[in-house]
Structures are given as C-alpha cells and as structure tokens.
Write a structure and sequence with these properties.
362 residues, homodimer, 4-stranded parallel beta sheet, 14 helices, Rossmann fold, 48% helix
C-alpha cells in the first residue's frame, strides 16, 4: 500500500448500542401503533446509535461536491461534451446548479472540490483546486490513475471529512460531477460485484439504447484489459488492496475522493447520507476497504439509473426515496435531508402513551 | 340530493395550461440533463398549473385533522379500543401526536375538527366540535350516517377548505383519526372499485392475520346488507348520487369531511396533498362526485396498508414516498411537504443553460 494511504487502515468509530437500545425503547412508547412511522422509526434509531444519544438531531449538514474529468469520455460514452464538467463547477460556484439551490434551501454548507478537469476553471470562490491532472487517463487503454493520483484523490476526500468534523457537521453528503463518470462507476461495480457490463451500464445523462450498448462494450474492453473478468467463482472484490487497485485502474478522481470522504467520516463518527449511482459505487468501495464504514452510511434514494439497484442490494441498503432522479451532484441526498430532520423531530417530540394518557393496544 | 349538498355541484377551478406550458419549457432549460430531477420536475410543473404562474411557491400549509368514531368498531375490527379516538384528539390539541410535531416543524397551520367521538373530549383549545353523534352507526346493521349527518360532515370539510382559502393557504392536507376507519375506507373502496374485501382489508393499526380475515368478513356482511355486491360487470360507482349513498351507508364522519374538504379545495383552487389509506378513499369519493377535483390532488405516499395501491392505481396516482408509513393523521402528507418545497426551489432557483454558459446535450 502507498505510504500516503496508511490512514485508510485506521479504525472506524463504533456505533453506540446503549443509545440505540434507548431509542428503540422510546419508539415503542410513542403515541402511535408500533411501526406506524415505517422507515422513519429505523432512521431515528440508527441516528441515535451514530450520535450516541437517545434523541438524535440533524444540525449542520456538510455537502461536498467533488469534480473530475474522465479519459474514457473520448470513447463517446456520454450524452454531454466533456467541457460540461468545468462549466458545471462554475455553475456550482455561482449558485445556479441543483445542489447549490438545495444547499441554500437546507441551510447546508456547500463546498466544491475540483480534483482535475479537462478545461481549466480558473480560480473560483468556494472551490478548492487540486489539479491532479486534466482528468484521468482513458481506462480502456491504461490505468485511469497513477498511484500518486489515487492517494491524492482519496486524501482530498479525507480532507473534506476533516473539515466537516471541524465545523461540527452532523451529516455529510458527498456529491460528484464528471462527464462519463457513470461509465467508471459501472466498471467498478462490475469488478467488485462480479457483474456484467450489460447489468450496470445505463443511459446516464441520456444515452439512447445504442449508446448504452456501446457504453457496455467500452466497459467490457476495460475489464478485459485490466483483468477484471466477471466470473461467479472468482471471489474477486475482497480485500482492501485489490479494491484500491480496481479503483486506481477503473475509477475517477471524484469517485476516489468520495471513497476517501466516506471512510474519513466513519473514522470521525460523522453519519453519511449516500446519494445515487456514483456515490453508491464509492460507498461500495469504502465498505470493501474498511467494512466498519458501512455502519455510518444511510442511503438517500434509488436512482433512475437501472444498475443502481444491484449496488444497493449488495450493500443491503434501504434507500428512502425513489423519485426517478438521476442528476448526481449529491442532489438526491440533499432532497432526503428533510426526512432525517422530520424523523428526529417525531422521535424527540412526540408524546409517549403515558404522557398523553392514551390507551395502548388491546 | 339533500338540499344542503347543492354546493357539491359547483364547478371546480380549471388548471392554468399557459402556466403549465411555461413551467414545462423552463424545466427543459435548466442546467441538468432533461428529466434528471424525476418526479420533482412533474411536481413543479403541476404546481405551476395549479397556481397559475410559471414559478410556483409553497407558502402557508393548512393541515386539518378530522376525527370521528365508527359504530363498526364494536365488531372487533381494530387493534386499539375506541376510546383512543377521543384520547388522540386531546393529544393533537396538546401537541404530542405525530401530526402536531410535523405541523410545528413545517410551520404549518394545524386545526383539529372533532365531528363526533364515542367519548366526550370536552372543550379543547384549537379543536372545533361538531358533535354529529357519538360516532357513526354500525354499518353491518344499518347505514353509518343519516342524510343530515352526511350533509353536515361534508359541510364541515368544506368549511375547513374555506378557512384554508381565507388564510391564503397554498396547500391543503387533510388528516384523520378514527378507530376502525380503515374498515370503513376499505368498504367504500370495495363499493366504488368493485373489489373484494380480501383485496382491501389490511392490518390497519396492527391486526394479525386472523384479525384481517375477520375484518374482511365484517366488510362483506356490510356490502351484502347495503347491496354493494362486487361484480366486474355491475358498473357500480359512477355518478354522484350513488357515490354519496355509498359514503352515507359505509363511510364515517371524518371520511365524509375529508371528501367535502377535497371538493371544497378544488372549487377554490387550493392544491391538496393526499395522505394515505383513508385520505385516498376520500380522494376517490371526491373524484367520483366531482371529477374536476382530481386535478387538484397530489399523492404524498404509498401506505404500508396493502390495499392502498389498488386505490392509488384507480386514481392513476404516483405517490412521492413509500416509507412503510401507516399512521394516518395526515402524517405521510406532512412528511412529503419538503419535497414540494424543494421541487419549487429547484424549478425557480436553478440557472438555465444560457444563464450559466453550460453546453447542452451533444
């Protein structure tokens, strides 16, 4: 392992089982039929275990959008030109993108981290520039990243988790922007889950059927080149080193940063609300690299990207929303934040049967 | 038709197609792949048509919880004793119920209308008392309501819609509380949709399998008594008079009030966010009595009550949430309010491609 990656081996925080049990007991005493608030009950109990208190609260929400370009874009796998990545970074900074609007509406902190775009964005207010390269290399021809690029991208995510911790954030959302990054995420999911490109490749920002087939063929070429040949018996995907190597060869700067951020949040005890297709691929990577990281993740929504469900199932995730969203940027996670806030409000604010003088079940 | 019901024949407001088209055009210009915000896009466009402006806003939300008891409770169809209806009315007034907490969190207006409970609640702050009776009659033996009771309950709902309009509410949520009211709602859905009690009867607040079977048998007895014998060829359910008579015989005070409120909102041009199982039965009644009422309804969530999906399908509803909630009180609709707010914020606040200088699709 690259020496700069030693931090990845540090332990993640443990959940607080005492707080979990106290919250579970409280849920059973509130003036409602048991279970009648559905997933909102489980959410409040999970947040109690994460925050180590019977009555959890969603305070400051820290949103970080990671941007990076992808060499594989030159294979014609996206409906949008590569220049859009840098243009959207500017749009984030100016407040015009979906995640900008959502962050403002939620009163959340929004930071933007540009890891490396094909077009230079210039200096922008509120945007950190890492300049790891003009995007990754085309992974149908070589590894997407060098070892140094991978280490720096993972560290950039960890840096964001550290800033979230320093600011007292109670929830972390990682977003992403990168033309062609559904191709990279799909390739990674194929490698980690032993699935076929046809199962993971989807329309992304709007490919037609022929485009999706072409995308699957591009992914297959990459899997062939890098030796990730799906086979039910291969047992591939276990072990941190192999996962990191898959990430280096098939991933992207922003996917590595998300992975680093999710692990960094788990090491610092910050709950993570995972967004859609790309973020879930990073969650899968994080959970494979540091299994304890999975304890700190909640899943915001099921994306319209068809293969997302396969990743969610592998993570035993129960996403909160299914609104047909497929935008990325962390937008699906941001839209789900009020559900966490309301779950906490209900858990903390409802009267118990005893307090209200209401009779329980016959 | 009862003379006090003449208001039911008044026309509902028309949606604004110009505003709808303007909003649709705007959605296509925002900096995101077309359709990438999924249902949030359709929601913003629908609200634009309802509010008659390209950029809709969710301002004041008016929540009214209608309570009433059900004579059919004596058949043992609920997991909770009938006294809980009145106890929960007190809990609403004191702020300890789920809907009280949600209304406070959302900054919504919450009013409680007690149409008639088996136990007297006494005067309570913020609770209107209609006292139509100590609950409905047991509809396995006679009609649930007299014509006067039905007219008064429908009017109580219309009164609430009028108060919402007077206060400038931009969204109406109707909630309910009434031990045994899933039995009444299921019986109504059977009558209106020509379905069998086994398809509509569910656990409600927590019946076991034997309890659900008993509930279905109770509903079948009521259908037999009142002549609503499901048959695919009967064509039952069309026409306002027949629907009102089904409501009188099989419904409940709070279900009739919800129905009146939904029609009253459509007549005044107030968008309605429909809650779960009981509220959807009322939405079905409202849409059958005044078909234009359906234009003003949005559906918040799919309830955990299994038969709910059948009502939603009949209404071609596309609910926003599916969180396994089954509490009633309007709680599922309240939880969905932030989705409407965020849909509007995105629609109104995002930059267009031209404004942001972002390139469109290849």
């Amino acid at each position: 392992m690259h020496t700069n990656l030693n931090w990845l081996t540090h332990a993640t925080q443990a959940l607080d089982e005492t707080a979990r049990n106290a919250a579970q007991t409280r849920q059973g005493q509130l003036t409602k039929p048991p279970g009648a608030l559905g997933q909102l009950e489980a959410l409040a109990i999970k947040l109690a275990a994460m925050q180590g208190r019977e009555k959890p609260q969603i305070g400051q929400v820290h949103i970080c959008v990671f941007a990076g370009d992808h060499g594989v874009a030159e294979e014609g796998v996206s409906a949008f030109p590569q220049a859009v990545t840098a243009e959207m970074v500017k749009n984030f900074a100016r407040g015009g993108a979906a995640i900008s609007v959502l962050a403002k509406q939620l009163g959340a902190t929004l930071e933007v981290v540009n890891l490396g775009t094909a077009s230079d964005t210039g200096e922008l207010p509120g945007v950190s520039q890492y300049k790891l390269g003009k995007g990754t290399a085309n992974f149908t021809q070589q590894a997407a990243m060098t070892e140094s690029q991978l280490a720096a991208a993972l560290q950039a995510g960890n840096d964001s988790a550290a800033r979230a911790a320093a600011s007292g954030a109670t929830l972390f959302i990682g977003g992403e922007m990168g033309i062609a990054n559904t191709t990279a995420a799909a390739a990674l999911a194929c490698a980690l889950l032993d699935l076929k490109p046809q199962q993971l490749a989807g329309p992304g920002t709007g490919l037609d059927q022929a485009g999706v087939q072409h995308k699957a063929a591009v992914i297959q070429r990459a899997l062939d080149l890098h030796g990730f040949l799906p086979s039910p018996a291969s047992g591939r995907g276990a072990g941190g080193e192999g996962v990191l190597e898959a990430l280096r060869r098939l991933g992207g700067f922003e996917i590595a940063a998300l992975t680093g951020a999710f692990i960094g949040c788990a090491q610092r005890g910050i709950p993570v609300l995972v967004d859609g297709y790309i973020a879930t691929a990073a969650a899968l990577l994080a959970a494979r690299i540091r299994p304890g990281a999975a304890d700190w993740m909640m899943y915001a929504h099921r994306s319209a990207e068809p293969g997302h469900i396969l990743m969610l199932e592998a993570l035993r995730a129960e996403p909160l929303l299914n609104l047909g969203m497929r935008l990325g940027e962390g937008s699906g996670a941001a839209v789900a934040v009020p559900l966490l806030q309301l779950a906490c409000a209900l858990h903390n604010g409802m009267a118990t049967f005893a307090e209200a003088g209401v009779q329980e079940k016959i």
